[in-house]
Write a structure and sequence with these properties.
- The chain is an alpha/beta fold and 500 residues long.
- It folds into two domains: 312 residues, Metallo-dependent phosphatases (Purple Acid Phosphatase, chain A, domain 2, 4-Layer Sandwich); 167 residues, 5'-nucleotidase,  domain 2, CATH 3.90.780.10.
- 26% of the residues lie in helices and 28% in strands.
- The chain has a seven-stranded mixed beta sheet.
């Protein structure tokens, strides 16, 4: 019988840094296989303060992994990622993930699966980044629609040897990826059924000699848990997920299901004991490695110096490119209606030919921190490379989009939701269902991202060529804010719609 143990190690509760105890003496036929797993790194290379704590940071996590006994050039452990590697703060997004590629290589990642946000800069950039990475990029359910084969930059699985045991690693990508990324970036790609992919791939991995099979998936742990009975039938020991940024360790049908959260704020350590005599995993254990500490107490583990040097170099390049100060906020601006209204109002201010503005809420990724506002802050808040489209729509078509998909809005106030939703324009008059309006939207939702209908309603919308960040930058600059005149004193934080 396999014995399964799930434990959570909270490093922040340790008074002192205690070395990892030596593993117990194992029978001669038993081998320990150790896997370290992160997901949704999103380019958060630098540690950052959150309240009384300092959280995240690639160098900081690497220091903790080394404390756990991980060495990149050793065959005693693997380091794996669940995808969504580079869209996030400017230190990564501005360089289309090049900084993350270098850090991943230094940390010694062995494999990663393809996340939806790994397509944010286009499949060509994903392919180029993959070619520069020392890891294997995996996805068993990603295929080209024309050939039925995986794209050239992806393979369904890979087999790696750990402590004399051959570990087969299968990747899975989020099935709904085409609905939540720029449609043009995944044109010609199909994201297939998870069960079908595992039924097809797991026997192939076994046939090639894998002793243990694990899955790394850009799929929410709760959804992965539904696959546990199938995984048990296929003798898959681990389902490691991501996407939902959930820190999770659980057992379902004898299979370990884990999720490491996001932004390098934690990692999961999985230890599997494999008996070479019986060909079975006899024990498995999962531990959460928290990457945080009380700021006033300082880091309990020294950040890895080599990763520190790489991150510092990219931080300097970011500051050189995007360090220009454009404004000031005393309190910071959280993601919410104040931020939504800044963005949509600035679009209409910058492009007065439009009457209304709509943006998806998922495009807002990071709060503006207190203090000077730099270009890098705006890139972190709006990291995607979108342009503004001027779509000519009837009032009824505007309502159709808001009823289905909601969003941040400019030039109007939205009342109610669903079939009862109505709109009042900023001059107090009701939206006329028969009238025609010029509506600014970003090209992601214009192309159908998040389920919007704009391209079907106006196939010939005008691409203004205006990057969606540019009006925000120019509007903040024009306000002349400073410590005695902070940005928050100028903001309209009135909700313009329901809680979508």
């Amino acid at each position: 019988m396999r014995r399964l143990t799930v434990t959570v190690t909270l490093a922040t509760l340790l008074v002192a840094c205690v070395p990892t105890p030596s593993p117990p003496t194992l029978p001669p036929t038993v081998r320990q296989v150790t896997l370290f797993y992160t997901s949704d790194e999103h380019g958060y290379l630098e540690a950052r303060e959150r309240g009384a704590y300092t959280v995240g940071g690639a160098a900081e996590l690497m220091g903790r992994l080394r404390q756990e006994g991980y060495e990149p050039d050793s065959d005693t452990a693997l380091l794996l990622s669940g995808g969504d590697m580079w869209t996030g703060p400017a230190i990564s997004s501005w360089f289309q993930g090049a900084s993350v590629v270098e850090v991943f290589n230094e940390m010694g990642y062995d494999a990663a699966t393809v996340g939806n946000h790994d397509f944010d800069f286009g499949a060509e950039v994903l392919s180029a980044n993959s070619a520069e990475m020392d890891l294997s990029l995996l996805s068993a359910n990603l295929r080209e629609t024309a050939s039925g084969e995986p794209p050239a930059y992806v393979q369904p699985y890979v087999i790696r040897q750990v402590n004399g045991v051959r570990v087969g690693i299968i990747g899975l990508s989020l099935q709904s990826t085409p609905r939540i990324v720029m449609p043009a970036h995944v044109e010609g790609l199909a994201f297939g059924d998870y069960e079908e992919a595992l039924r097809e791939t797991a026997p192939q991995v076994r046939a090639e000699g894998a002793d243990i099979v694990v899955v790394i998936a850009h799929v929410c742990p709760a959804d992965l848990a539904l696959l546990a009975p199938l995984a048990a039938d296929l003798d898959i020991s681990l389902l490691a997920g991501g996407h939902c940024h959930q820190l999770t360790t659980m057992e379902r049908a004898g299979v370990l299901v884990v999720g490491p959260g996001a932004n390098w704020e934690a990692a999961i350590r999985v230890d599997l004991l494999y008996d070479t005599a019986t060909g079975e995993v006899t024990e498995q254990e999962a531990q959460v490695i928290q990457n945080r500490y009380r700021t006033a107490e300082g880091p309990p583990v020294e950040p890895d110096p080599d990763v520190t040097e790489i991150v510092a170099r990219w931080a300097a390049q970011t500051d050189e490119a995007l360090g220009k100060v454009i404004g000031y906020t005393g309190t910071g601006i959280e993601i919410g209606w104040a931020m939504y209204n800044i963005v949509t109002d600035s679009w209409l201010w910058y492009y007065p030919e439009a009457d209304l503005a709509i943006s998806n809420l998922g495009g807002f990724r990071e709060a503006l921190p207190p203090g000077e506002i730099t270009l890098a802050d705006i890139v972190a808040t709006l990291p995607f490379e979108n342009t503004l489209m001027d779509a000519e729509l009837t009032g009824e078509e505007v309502l159709e989009n808001l009823r289905c998909c909601g969003g941040a809005v400019g030039g109007m106030i939205v009342h109610g939701s669903g079939p009862e939703l109505t709109v009042t324009l900023t001059d107090g008059s009701p939206l006329d269902p028969q009238a025609t309006y010029h509506v600014l939207v970003n090209n992601y939702i214009y192309q159908g991202g998040d389920g919007y209908h704009f391209s079907q309603q106006d196939p010939d919308a005008y691409d203004t060529g205006i990057h969606w960040r540019e009006p925000v930058i120019q509007w903040i600059r024009a306000q002349g804010t400073g410590p005695d005149h902070p940005l928050e004193s100028l903001l309209d934080d009135t909700p313009r719609g329901p809680e979508w």
